[in-house]
Automatic annotation (TrEMBL), chain A:
Residues 8-249 form the MmgE/PrpD N-terminal domain. This is Cis-aconitate decarboxylase. The gene is Acod1_1. The lineage of its organism: Eukaryota, Metazoa, Chordata, Craniata, Vertebrata. Gene3D superfamilies: 2-methylcitrate dehydratase PrpD. Homodimer. It catalyses: cis-aconitate + H(+) = itaconate + CO2. The keyword Phosphoprotein does not apply.
From TrEMBL, chain B:
One of its GO terms (molecular function) is protein homodimerization activity. This is Cis-aconitate decarboxylase. Residues 6-194 form the MmgE/PrpD N-terminal domain. It comes from Picathartes gymnocephalus (White-necked rockfowl). It catalyses: cis-aconitate + H(+) = itaconate + CO2.
Amino acid sequence: PEDTVTGSFASFIHAARPEHLSQTVRQRSKRMILDSIGVGLVGSTTRVFDIALSYCRLYSSVAVSSVYGKPGVKLSPTLAAFTNGVATHSMDFDDTWHPATHPSGAVLPALLAASQMLPPSTKPSGLDFLLAFNVGLEVQGRLMHFSTEAHNIPKRFHPPSVVGTLGSAAAAAKLLSLSSAECCHALGIAASLAGAPMANAATQAKPLHVGNATRLGLEAALLAARGMEANPLILDDIPGCSGFSAFYSVYQPKPLPAPGGHHEFLLEKQDIAFKRFPAHLGMHWVVDAALSVRNLFVNYAGSFSPSLIRAIMLKIPVSKYINRPFPSSEHQARHSFQFNACAALLDGEVGLGSFSESSIHRQELRELLHKVVVEHPEDNVANFDKMYGEVALLLHSGDVLTGKCDTFYGHWRKPLSKESLLKKFRSNASHVLPEEKIEAIITLVDNLETLSDSSQL
Amino acid sequence: QIYSSDLSSTIWGHLDFRLPPLYAAFVNGVAVHSMDFDDTWHPATHPSGAVLPAVIALSEAFPQKKKISGLDLLLAFNVGIEVQGRLLHFSREARNIPKRFHPPAVVGTMGSAAACAKLLALDQLECKNALAIAASYAGAPLANAATQIKPLHVGNAAKHGLEAACLALQGLQGNKQILDTESGMGAFYTDYNPQTLPTLQSYPWLLDQQDVAIKRFPAHLATHWVADAASAVRRKLVESNENLLPLDKIEKVILKVPEVKYVNRPSPVSEHEARHSFQFVACSALLDGSMSVQSFNSENVHRPALRELLCKTQLEHPPDNTPSFDSLYCEVRVKLRDGNMISDCCTTFYGHWRKPLKKEDLEKKFQSNALGILPAEAMEGIIETVYNLEKVEDCSVLSTFLSGQSARALPEKL
């Protein structure tokens, strides 16, 4: 029934056509696809990825789907999706949206895997692929708008594991051309596979949230295609018996308008943030602020001299899982305001190498960490649209130097230029691919709409 | 079946193919909960279905030279049950019939991870990580109860718990305080107060103090009170009416039950809905005298006499009828056209932990379920093996029977 929220989502997924994608949406989503692939490629060099891959290789019979960075290795579609999803989020280098989630990693791997699963006669075109990708993003965004809770940095459930799973189910359902009823059931099945607590953020298990979101969403779509049925009101408000609302304390769902006409994709109005270095998004404000105050300091003192610093004051929003005074692992370091500020101050930049074991444990950095003091100004809201980062150096001389960042470069208010995005992609991909392949991917994604067989990707 | 390589584990009741342990655990877990016929505990969850398929599937995946004994299996199983029970005690919310998350998907996943970690002999650190990883798979909303997906909650609990243990074995690490924090296991509850477990010295197992309920027919536990009360009412009606049920003399059927929205279905259409309907079970028991597996087949669900009786049925929720499997009651009251009222109230149905099934009746249920799927020797083999599990040297005999092979095929294993 189309008058239910769930039904409207199912209809949207089913009825969306390439014509419904605006130019802005196409362009933004292609940037996301490219970045996501790059991040997945460099992610295939991580330890957590190794574990995921070796686990999946046990079960790879109908091995048709490719794995980032591992030429010649194929896995079954859902496990390839899982592994690639883990790679994408392995370094916390993937895109972030508002309301907060990591949208692409939950959708792209499932689509890549599924495209290889379909027989040659029904291979989806690049345009089909781009559409399915956007359907997956749109569903995630719309779901997050059902709860005011979702506007702030999360505390209870990790959003990719909640909305990401349904986004993946929606995207896969679209690519596999499921009927409207099957799309509905895919969402319902996915809901029973969603949800992971925040406590595993900043641990090695966090990348699994994205890996599982994309894998289980694909599984849900495959089960729905085989006739499995779930609650057709899973997204609606059902008092006394929670559906998707189980993941939120406040939940106000609304039906989706039909595609075309009054419907506008959320990506049209709200762009994505791309990260410049592999750490939690919140770190990016603090790093830009630290870099700016570092410049001031270098001008003041001639060079960066830590001995002149009495204290480092960070003004940051309240968010427990990214407030870590002394991180001991790479995962913790990627989720530490203090660490990222100090690394930026010491090195003048933060990049892949900043999170290696030796970098995390070096003496100069630990010394700097001891000087850090944290403050939570009331006006600094834990929200990726409104927060800011401020780093103040309190010198022994009594002078105070301050750097502040409202909008870091890469945020949706100050998007990465095409050159910067390509630079990030080339840098990431070069860890595992030769130059010709790198350039081929760039060209392919840029011309995605004209590709006749998206499994080429 | 699409993803099957490393075919080590049995699909219960199927001789013809095997699956990798992960998928065997999934498929068997789904089977266990497919008819809502599996055990129920207090606080509420379906403990065995989340654990047994995983440990059996896992035990089959060990290399030939490493034998898992019956005692190993029994211990791992109990570890899995105990962990579930302890977690449920961390929240007062858990004492009542759930409203938000389906408990097997929450604690079942953790129990499966614990049991598999035990069987895999993970060290203390790896066990912590297994639990942490499992938490990130836990949880499914209740709205999928009474649909075809509900059985997947148990299947996935078994599968994902096993996966978590395997990932931990490979070295994956999660939050080592996953059970301590609100943003860990606490995410699934509105009130969460975790406690450390007692030391192993004379350990007080929860199963010692609190037994499970075993269902006599495949439907939501709350309907079992209704069935017993309705059967009793039918006996009274029939006695005073020359052994015939006076259907057309029935004006109203009133059920006094606790308020449990997902079991309140006045007019169920599918078998899944019928298994989650106070009204359906009451009318079915009134018509037939007792409930069975067949009560839920399509013919019976749609028969006119039943649909008519359903139209006359209504629910009442007395305030003293709390939605807890430990304290709820059901009263069935039939009002006849001549003004007479016949009623009966059930506080403890036969099969509940306060009135456990006798050995013969448990075996009867098993045999009736296994009939037609396993040959007689395999059936007897399983009963024999399970009763003597502590003495079994190699628990793979259980799997062999489960796949439908007979005793004559494996004299040396016995």
